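name: query_chain
kind: protein
chains: 1
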Amino acid sequence: AKPKVSSTLAVRKPGAWIPLDSGIEHRKMTLERSDSSYSFDLNLVRFGRRVRPRIISSGQFQLKSSDAKTLALRSGAVATINANYFDEKGKPLAFLKTANQEINRNVSKHALYTGVFGVQDSMPFIVHRDDFQLTEAQEAIQSGPLLLKQGAAMENIPGAGRYSRRAVIGMDKQQRLIVGVTDTVLGGLSFAELQELFSRPEWQLETTELLNLDGGGSAQLYIKTRSHEEFVSGTSEVPVVIGFFKTGN
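structure:
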């Protein structure tokens, strides 16, 4: 029997962490939905201390929006994942600050945008918006919902059982960042299933903090090392990504 994540979701192939470069590992989990008889992959990348995150705006390259691959190649990032929610004009719907510009200084109280991913003194953090201090972030995006906080599943999440294409960023006990994107156009994962996958030890992800990023057509992930290149493309362009850069230290 395949191990169950939820009553309708099983792990078909758990995959294994494969080192791609110093501080960069890739893993592909294949999941299977029993009530609609389809399977899909959860593409995962894990980063060690030698890889540093940055918030990358398409506007830095005179672009209104773009895809994760283009923004990786333009910025020199080894990997990129889509970031915040935005409106039809590409404007962020909650707090957004890059190293060069504070694009939206409003910390939204919307029920969905309960988490913040940021960078301070080159170190990443993921916090609840109520714990976020504007002066503490050199770069940050507000997104959500925040799914895990200090290892515990957040409760009362709107639409917790709804399936969708997802993109997430998390941090484990070793302060390693983990990003993940599902590759299915139809269906996908629920917030409750993400909480299960990223918190329980049997799935070998175990993040203490986990933040949902903009999903649906925006969800996309690109990675390129000397030995591996992969692009989980979205169906729409995005104005902002989180980029990951090798430091060499």
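note: The mean pLDDT is 94.
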